[in-house]
């Protein structure tokens, strides 16, 4: 009886919730939300600008199917570049019926979700200011967004800036980053030199994007819309987005080459950079052997072409959520071995930089290959002729759980000559990659709370790693130090025991002597 009563109350409550929800959304079913401007397919592989099909992919969500959704793109003040949807639009139905989502077996919840993703693949010219409005139907539209796609090829003297970071939610910490980025955006609108070309988001957004029936993730995308609807973006997937082989994530985002590689690997050129995105978590946890081979083959092929084009894009920058190299911790200690095949390709084809996140801090690593530090000249501010890929970790967009200060002990070893890391910082912030010319690129890190420049590292490179200089010496850091520490502790303990024994022995002797002398 009690069971039925309970059941009835639950059912009524559920019906009430449903009714409430559909009521509150009633006349906003086609209102476009979470607008995002992503880099399109044809930034990739050096296509002739005349044949450009898809340079920008504009995406938004609606609650209803809204088959009349469309888009208007303007150039100059009032000239319509494109209007409509025909041949350019795909609508993806994102529907979940209570499937269980967890992160590493924790934070489990069921996902009930029923929304539509509108994806527009557009041929917008590069290097031209444009504005656009998206429509869910005739009366439901977004505000006007303004943007400019980065040039494919840029004058050598023209410095290009790219923003990058990952691991962010909408906590108070994260909001300092949003605020700082809005300031940066205003600066860019006022001064050409402050312009950001594009934004590489390195994965893990909102923690967890499936919670509250997906509202947690949607809330994040609503907040970040001001940034990613105007800065051309690549939003690469993190391990917190991995459930069901990234299906829910892939229903929201389509990065270059999506139909072939499902957001797991892709590349594009901007200015003097060839960017290549790799989802290493997919490689180690989701791909079977056949898919691993496919991914390796694709990366190799991409890097062969990129190297042939190196006089136009001298810098090859890989990025992704999980890095191959970082300071020792549970996740990173094995990475150079787990991702060895990718590390080999990156070394053989001289990938200059890896932008990663995953670990919640900022770190600059020395040039690394196969877990060993490779040669370089100069110092942390002017790194000259690195003989291996340099990794920058920017997993500090800001999130509720604060920093992973369990790695703080690593700071002590930073000054060791043979430590893999140049610098570790625990602060909320973001990174900017500034490409100056063929041979010089700089990384800047900004503190979100103060918008202050914290570090500047410049890298000078001829984009060749000399195999004769290959170093295979193991690094001297955390694990070894941990072992050493353990040995010292045991020795100290033994010493204490011996001293205590001597002391007790002497004390007993003393008492005995004393007794004897009393007689
Ligand atoms: C755009 O053109 C329309 C009509 O052609 C005009 O009414 C409107 O004021 C123009 N807007 C701007 C911003 O020039
Ligand atoms: C961060 O900003 C968003 C959007 O303005 C807001 O919804 C959220 O509550 C803020 N977070 C905190 C912790 O204040
Ligand atoms: C990298 O280059 C070395 C030396 O030329 C070669 O032996 C090795 O097979 C290459 N590895 C990959 C993955 O390309």
Bound molecules: 2-acetamido-2-deoxy-beta-D-glucopyranose
The spatial strand order of the largest sheet comes to: 11-10-9-23-24-25-20-19
Based on CA inertia axes, which overall geometry fits?
globular
Classify the helix fraction into a percent range. Answer: 25-40%
Main sheet specs? 8 strands, mixed
Note the beta-strand portion.
Answer: 25-35%
The poorly predicted ranges are 19-26
Q: What does the average pLDDT come to? A: 89
Based on CA atoms alone, the radius of gyration comes out at: 27 Å
How many helices? The count is: 10
How would you explain this protein's 3D organization?
The protein is α+β, with helices and mostly antiparallel strands and 519 residues long. It is built from 10 helices and 25 strands. Strands 11-10-9-23-24-25-20-19 form an 8-stranded mixed sheet, with no helix packed on it. Helix 2 (172-190) runs parallel beside helix 3 (215-228) and helix 7 (289-308) runs parallel beside helix 9 (340-348). The model is unreliable at 19-26 (pLDDT under 50).
């Amino acid at each position: 009886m009690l069971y039925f009563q309970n059941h009835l109350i639950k059912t009524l409550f559920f019906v009430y919730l449903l009714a409430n929800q559909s009521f509150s959304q009633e006349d906003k079913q086609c209102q476009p939300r979470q607008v995002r401007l992503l880099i399109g397919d044809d930034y990739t592989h050096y296509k002739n600008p005349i044949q450009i099909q898809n340079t920008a992919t504009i995406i938004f969500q609606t609650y209803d199917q809204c088959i009349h959704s469309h888009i208007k793109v303007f150039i100059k003040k009032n000239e319509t570049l494109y209007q409509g949807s025909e041949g350019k639009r795909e609508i993806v139905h994102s529907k979940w019926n209570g499937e269980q989502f967890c992160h590493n077996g924790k934070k489990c919840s069921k996902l009930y979700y029923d929304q539509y993703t509108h994806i527009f693949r557009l041929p917008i010219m590069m290097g031209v200011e444009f504005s656009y409005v998206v429509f869910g139907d005739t009366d439901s539209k977004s505000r006007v967004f303004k943007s400019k796609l980065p040039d494919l090829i840029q004058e050598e003297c023209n410095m290009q800036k790219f923003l990058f970071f990952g691991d962010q939610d909408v906590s108070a910490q994260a909001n300092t980053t949003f605020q700082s980025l809005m300031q940066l955006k205003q600066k860019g609108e006022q001064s050409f030199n402050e312009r950001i070309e594009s934004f590489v988001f390195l994965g893990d957004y909102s923690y967890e994007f499936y919670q509250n029936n997906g509202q947690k993730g949607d809330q994040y995308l609503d907040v970040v819309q001001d940034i990613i609807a105007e800065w051309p973006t690549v939003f690469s997937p993190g391990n917190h987005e991995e459930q069901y082989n990234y299906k829910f994530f892939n229903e929201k985002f389509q990065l270059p080459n999506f139909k072939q590689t499902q957001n797991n690997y892709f590349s594009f050129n901007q200015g003097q950079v060839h960017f290549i995105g790799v989802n290493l978590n997919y490689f180690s946890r989701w791909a079977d052997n056949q898919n691993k081979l496919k991914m390796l083959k694709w990366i190799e092929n991409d890097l062969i072409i990129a190297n042939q084009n190196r006089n136009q894009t001298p810098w090859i920058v890989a990025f992704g959520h999980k890095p191959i190299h970082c300071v020792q911790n549970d996740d990173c200690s094995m990475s150079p071995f787990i991702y060895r095949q990718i590390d080999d390709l990156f070394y053989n084809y001289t990938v200059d930089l890896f932008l990663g996140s995953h670990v919640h801090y900022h770190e600059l690593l020395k040039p690394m290959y196969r877990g060993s530090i490779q040669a370089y000249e100069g110092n942390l501010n002017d790194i000259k002729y690195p003989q291996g890929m340099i990794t920058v970790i920017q997993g500090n967009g800001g999130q509720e759980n604060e920093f992973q200060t369990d790695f703080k002990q690593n700071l002590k070893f930073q000054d060791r000559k043979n430590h893999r890391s140049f610098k570790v910082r625990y602060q909320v912030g973001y990174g900017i990659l500034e490409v100056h010319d063929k041979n010089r690129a700089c990384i800047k890190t900004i503190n979100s709370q103060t918008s202050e420049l914290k570090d500047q590292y410049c890298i000078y490179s001829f984009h060749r790693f000399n195999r004769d200089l290959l170093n295979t010496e193991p690094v001297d850091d955390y694990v070894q130090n941990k072992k050493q520490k353990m040995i010292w502790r045991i020795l100290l303990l033994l010493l204490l025991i011996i001293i205590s024994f001597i002391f007790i022995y002497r004390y007993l002797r003393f008492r005995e002597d004393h007794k004897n002398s009393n007689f």
